[in-house]
Write a structure and sequence with these properties.
The chain has 317 residues and is mainly alpha-helical. Helix content is 45%, strand content 9%. The strands form 4 sheets. Strands 1-2 form a two-stranded antiparallel sheet. A two-stranded antiparallel ribbon has the order 3-5. Strands 4-6 form a two-stranded parallel sheet.
Length: 317
């Protein structure tokens, strides 16, 4: 009995030492030397999770990870998904991230000015997405933006995000547009925005370009915008990898603004917010013409004579 009297304190001290060492181990810097993503499969138990983490170099000891999850009652709460871990992440931090379900979100960027066909190709071939695209989308319905998604998210989910985002922003811009613009409806504004998007990549020029087309519409002049002819030729399915020819301007299409008055029937691409804002708030100018200046921007003109001079300058460059 007297020996037991000394054994219990010794055991308590030993247990305290062991617990102190385990506690230090679980909060200590881990072995990971670079950022790594780990996929935890659905239905994986703690043993499988530990194996995946060890195989990826996130942890040193499978046993320690399983012990930590058990001590924190997290062994039944580890959530499937893709996780990203930073260098030297501790075992405790790893366990907490997986238990909270802080999955890694991938990103896909839809650039301004792409057609629906080009966007569908981008999404169809983008890594990390799953399934086929089943949604029917029209030109001008997708907002160019960066969207987040979890690994193996349906491709349709990206399209739905882009559609919902476009629906919201274009309605706000339409509701706050300037008065007196030559648009019958929101489709006209979006069509104008798509032309502006294609005509210039210079931010400061968008509202000026918009003013040219608005002025021409008010004067019942044809818009004569090359991007609309390109769309008529390609139907938005591919890039026209050659300059426009003179006979292209005679193509029989409602999108040919060299033959038809007014705006095309629908957008010719998916414009960004800045192009939509320019369509809704064009500058106040007397410009009726513009041509490339040979340096990435454009020269604007109020008269045909002035425009012809600008054309000659461009041809010299």
């Amino acid at each position: 009995m007297r020996s037991l009297k000394y054994i219990f304190p010794v055991l308590i001290v030993l247990a305290s030492v062991v617990w102190w060492q385990v506690k230090n181990l679980i909060v200590a810097e881990g072995p990971l030397q670079e950022v790594v993503n780990v996929v935890i499969p659905k239905g994986a138990n703690t043993k499988i999770v530990a194996q995946e983490l060890k195989k990826s170099g996130v942890i040193d000891s499978e046993l320690l990870f399983r012990l930590v999850t058990r001590l924190n009652s997290a062994d039944k709460n580890l959530k499937a998904g893709e996780y990203q871990f930073m260098p030297k992440v501790s075992v405790l931090q790893v366990m907490e991230k997986i238990a909270r379900g802080e999955v890694y979100y991938r990103k896909i960027t839809i650039p301004e000015g792409l057609t629906v066909g080009q966007i569908m190709y981008l999404i169809s071939n983008y890594p990390g997405l799953s399934g086929e695209i089943s949604l029917d989308v029209k030109e001008g319905e997708l907002l160019p933006e960066t969207y987040s998604f979890e690994l193996d998210a349906p491709r349709d989910s990206i399209i739905l995000q882009a559609q919902n985002a476009m629906d919201k922003i274009k309605q706000v811009i339409w509701d706050n547009r300037e008065e007196g613009l030559p648009y019958k409806n929101i489709n006209d504004m979006m069509t104008m925005a798509s032309i502006i998007e294609k005509e210039t990549a210079v931010p400061d020029e968008r509202a000026v370009v918009a003013s040219v087309f608005v002025n021409r519409l008010h004067k019942r002049m044809r818009l004569q915008t090359d991007p609309s002819v390109i769309y008529a030729l390609t139907e938005g399915e591919f890039e026209l990898k050659r300059p426009l020819r003179k006979n292209d301007l005679n193509i029989d299409s409602p999108y040919n603004t060299y033959r038809n008055y007014g705006l095309p029937p629908h957008p010719i691409c998916n414009p960004g917010v800045e192009a939509m804002e320019a369509a809704a708030h064009p500058d106040k100018t007397d410009y009726l013409y513009f041509v490339a200046d040979g340096e990435g921007g454009h020269n604007f003109a109020k008269s045909l004579n002035e425009h012809n001079r600008n054309v000659r300058k461009w041809k010299k460059k």
